[in-house]
Each structure stands twice: as C-alpha cells, then as structure tokens.
Known about the structure:
Structural class: alpha/beta
Shape: globular
Largest sheet: 7 strands, parallel
Number of helices: 8
Strand content: 5-15%
Distance between the termini: 36 Å
Amino acid sequence: MSELQGKVAVVTGSTSGIGLGIARALGSAGAHLVLNGFGDAAAIAALREQLAREFKVRVRYDGADLAKPAEVRGLIERSAAEFGRVDILVNNAGIQHVAPIEEFPDDRWDAVIALNLSACFHAIKAALPFMRRRAWGRIINISSAHGLVASTQKVAYVAAKHGLLGMTKVVALETATTPITCNAICPGWVLTPLVQKQIDDLARRDELAPEEAKRRLLAEKQPSGEFATPQQIGALALFLCSDAAAQIRGAALPIDGAWTAQ
C-alpha cells in the first residue's frame, strides 16, 4: 500500500497503545512519521528504527510536552521544518483521572483539559496553514465513547472528549470547501496502558483477579464483551486518510463494541 507515499503524519501519544497502532497503519501506507509521547529513551529510539526499517519511511521522534501550548506549536513547526510539510495530524495523546466531582482535584482537571482538549486546539491551529499551503490534509481527533456519552467519576475526561467532538465539527465546517477533512474516532474500551491501569485499580479496589476485573469492566459498558484493538483503530484512521473518505467531514465514528448503541 502506498496511497500516502511521501506524506507526513504527526501522531501524538504514539509511543504505545492506540497512537502506535495508528502510526503503524499510516507508515504501512507510505507516510513519513513524527512520533510523540513519553517513555524510555532507548525503547523509543529502537521503536523509531524498527518502524523506519519495516515500512521504509522516515521516522522522527519529538518529545514535546503537549500540556504546554508553546511545545505543541513547536512540535508542528519542527516537523514542518524537517520534512517540509505536515499532511496528517492525529491528536491522540490523553490522560485520565477518576474521582467524584466534589473530590476531583483542581490540578487534575487542569491537566486533563490541557492535554486532552487544549493541546488538540493548538496542534490544529499550527498544522492547518501547512495543509492549506499544499491543498490537502487530514485531521483525526481521537475522542472516545466518552465523547458521546458520560460515565461517573470522569468529569474532566468526559468534558474534554465532548469538547473535542465540538472542535472537530467546527474545523470540519471551516475546511468544508477545501481538500482538508477533520473527523473524530470514538473508541470504547481498548486494552492500552491507560485502560490497564483502570483494570488494575478495579481489581485492587474490589479484590478481584485481573481477568475478572477485565470481564467486569467490559460487561459494564461494551456489549460485545471484547476490547477494540489499536490495529482496528489504525485501519479506520487510514481509511479516513483515503480518497474514499473525502466527504466524511465532522463525523464522530464509534469503534466501541456497541457501547453507544445502548
């Protein structure tokens, strides 16, 4: 597959989990990659080399802290400076904190909103001029089933993911007459490090075996009883970058085992 040959994709939160699944899908189609995220420096270097070798594309890593607006802008500007273009932006990086609203720490609210919502705004604002210059672009925001429905004890995450869907629609309208599209993917439960922490917390809180905690987590929300996979989300992101998806604009596409169908 080479439909993205020569294009440049910036994928935030792409050193593991959903972001890495998306980066792999875009790399498999020929896109050069800019990875971003936290992790062990040696492991990230090995990942970068492995992706470059496997897909025969250029792969750059940028350690920008997306909680800081100047660093978000720097991520986009450095990517454009190195590759001469930014064609695809995937806003995937996110964090979670769980607590009832009366007990929700102010600093955790600020941190979740900064990374899960504000960073997406700053990245889109910085990337759009490069896409307009080349008259082509794809912006994919990774929202959540929690962008469509709510759950208790996740006020910041739910607010941020709902806000991200609103931002997606605004950007889609503002680019509607251009070859630039903006859409959102709304995963349900995906077995990522973020979700694994919630499984571990549930197991510890209710004194459950890990497999039973996993089963309960899925049974509560996801009727399919199965996790979605980073590979499935990557395949959907790749489709949104294709010509076949040129008139999918401002959509919120669930991949959630019927969670939001209830």
